[in-house]
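Can't attach files on this board, so I'm pasting raw text. These are the components:
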Amino acid sequence: MDRNMTLKKLEEGLFKILMVVSALIIMGVLIYIVGTIIYKGLPSLNWDMLSKLPGGGFYLGKEGGVANAIVGSLYIVAGSLLISILLSLPVVMYINFYLRKNSLFANITRFSFDILFGVPSIVYGAFGFALMVYLGIRASLLGGIITVAMLIMPIMMRSLDEVTRLLSRDLPDALLSLGATRYEMTRVIIRQLMPGIVTSVLLAIGRGIGDAATVLFTAGYTDNIPHALNQPVATLPLAIFFQLGSPVEEVQNRAYASAIILTVIILILSFSARYFSSRYSKHKI
Amino acid sequence: MKEIFLESMQEKSISGHIQDNPVEPSGSGHSMRVENLNVFINDNHILKDINLDIPEKSITCIIGPSGCGKSTFLKSINRMHDETPEVKINGSILVDGRDIYGPRVNVIDTRKKMGLLAQRPCPLPMSIFDNVAYGPRIHGLKKRKALNQTVIQYLQYVGLWAEVRGRVRTPATRLSIGQQQRLCLARGLAIEPAYILGDEATSALDPISTRKIEELFIKLKEKYTLILVTHTLRQAKRIADYIVFMYLGKVIEAAPTDEFFNNPKKQLTREYLSGSFS
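---
Top answer:
Structure tokens for the assembled complex are below.
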């Protein structure tokens, strides 16, 4: 009996240590990455970085900022999110509430999400580029938006589908028994799912705003802020990539400052989305 | 035990009189008639030749052991099985002489006639006001004044108005479970149904809330026909005018409450009432 208890205690202790060590490793990696970015980037971070366009010789250490890339990234994320939400939400609602539970079409659609989810972003970039060549579109904001939308749509659909499948049948049944049509039912369900939808959008933003490979061939790069969809656009991941490639140390440090800006943008979008979601979903069951 | 049931079923030839003729609890007019209703889920025969008349403006309680088909029967009445393609239905349910499974019947109109009260209260993710206003809104009532009147009327009817009048714009989820169930009842009544269907509507409630809901049911039968599924024999005895006893997908016995409890005609009913099985 005593020996059994000792073994149980040993087992308990061992697994506790394993869990703590795993958590520490994850936190350590995160702290190391964020710490490096802040340590190297903070001295170069100033108002000019945020507000100015890169002047001539910016990549050789002269004055300027990455306002073009900040605005460009926000344009691309906003556009691709709009397309993704408009396409993902109806698809997920359709396969969950219009098709029967084990419908072949729904299963094939889910399988497609899974495959598309795992496709590397460079493949989307190459596909987007090929599509643009076929359609005769130049590297532009529109090209970037469409390609990033293709990248984030499977992420959004997969997470939305998971959230929707967790919904209890009670709510749809309550709505249908009141004589609601499926469309009316879906509208109420979307309100109920709002926190999950926000989480899906955040996942998509995180992936879309930080990806360089998709926009490398499709969005182009410019030192200006685009004023039309057919103009090329700069993005923060590419700005970081180009600055890190510079032989000038000062410019390399500006890459880390740009990374801080990218991280802060994600944080701001994340907190705002959570705030509006909690306000909007105060009636959630 | 199982053998005894089967034996008693064979002895009393359940599929004889009851299944061939609609069960007609005496003493009231008829507004709903179920004829030869059979429900299959995949290849399982769940409801078998149900023939039944539901008396109007009264409470009919459907009782029986778990898995006997009570809830399946209730879902057949408001066509909620339409949402499950695996379910196949034969037979007819005549509401005011018209088969709700007829070829040109609008499902939404049918559901609108049946207010459903589920086992667990399920308020919609919106305010108390909007919960009650939801049904009238989707069925075309848009004028604010009329909506206000409707909401107040039905909240008063279920005895919730006095408790929530200062906070009708707050989320319905902030109400207690008992209050939520009364809200769901008000929401169901607001679409002006002719029938109230209750699927073990008090099973998740505390005794005080249960009593309030039961009192409401008794009040409601002045205007509505109530069909309630319950697991609690005492509840059925307290509130029902008619009892339908189901077992293994068949109606075994249907009778006015006093007659059912004091003088059951079937051996299986007697065994169920004596607690031989549940």
